[in-house]
Known about the structure:
The protein is mainly β. Helix content is 11%, strand content 44%.
Amino acid sequence: MMNSYERISTATTKLAAWFALVTFVIFAQFARAELVLEVTQGNDKLVTVAVSPFSWSGKTVLPEDMAAIVDNDLKLSGLFTALERKNMLSFPGKESEVYYRDWKVLGASYLVTGKVEKQGENYHVHYQLFDVVRQRSMLSGQVKGNGTQMRALAHHVSDAVYEKITGIKGDFSTRLLYITAEMVKPASEKREGKKTVKVPPVYNYQLKYADADGKRVRTVFRSREPILSPSWSPDGRHVAYVSFESGRSSIFMQELATGKRKQLAAYKGLNSSPAWSPDGKKIAFMLSKGGSPDIYVMDLDSGKLSQLTSHYSIDTEPDWMPDGRGIIFTSNRGGSAQIYQIDVAYKSDGSVVASSKPKRLTFEGRFNARAKVFPDGKSLALVHKGRQAADFNIAIQDLDTGRLRLLTSSTLEDSPSVAPGGRRLIYSAQGKQHGELGIVSADGRVKYRLPSAAGDIREPVWGPAVNL
């Protein structure tokens, strides 16, 4: 059977069939409520860190085990291994209680301690990081929030510790957006007169988001019709997505805090692939209202719609360059799906115009699509298929040199999304039984899977850091 990606390189008239196949592949199965990260390939030079249980003198049990969350975050970075709590010789609450020799004997290079206090309705979390080898304090800080923010507070501690040790900004305070599908009624048959008619299965589709460690899953939107192409706003307060709830594709914007929805595009034909501009004021997407799928940009204040590309081929899957001066997209105008870039200019009335002709960026392999720009604008993450290869894998292409490097190697991988710090990528992957999510470090050395026990999870998008 022809793969969905190969279909994009066929004539425009086959786009509807291609889209239907994508929908089938994506939503064939289900997702469970909470994701569980499993490290499948780790760094071979892990640094041992000890996270001592955070002290707490309150009369009730803390809503969360703060130290356990920090411990887990650091392990999931793929750079650290954590000293088990049962092997610790003491649980220091302040620097005077830290005996470096004990921690050095246990093999720890770093020690994290913490203390939680409650003042009014807020919890104040004090934390410290110690360099065991040099026997000195490296970092101390404080974060505060209410009981529902305890996991977020712990993630902020993890970010601070990670950045102090590695010099790289942590992404534990970010969130993941993704789509699940649950079969609520299997396929069946029914009689209509003298004929037996096949009845397709019924699914429950949900757009969800969770913390970067897969916890605290929340549902944004649910529908009996497919949901596609989720996208975060730069401030993390809104999401955009494609919904088929009306029986045809429409693009919606939704505020997470209130659930308030706004329909942005429901033109004749396909409405797909929304992508927010870096300043959050515009959204690029694909529309086929003119006959061929082309890239458009909508100004969110004025609602003004600007058409950027005009070609008989398929132009789709836009993403913005970090400076907002260019948009990349997938097009088969060269005979196969490849990545192109078009420069843009802004007018005072809110419209956006193309300021250059589309420039092809990818040349290696017979298929490159669904590209996402790294935060520094120097590389692309994309779905790649080599000329002799049968598999679709996640790859990174350097924009200066054009050098392409494969990060994964299973059979069908899709939808790469880059973490805000550019250190990790999340993508869709085919598991043994169901579609699941994968995370890979940008150097390819550390990999995780988020397996699904009950069905498919697809189209993940890595969101911005969350402010307390």
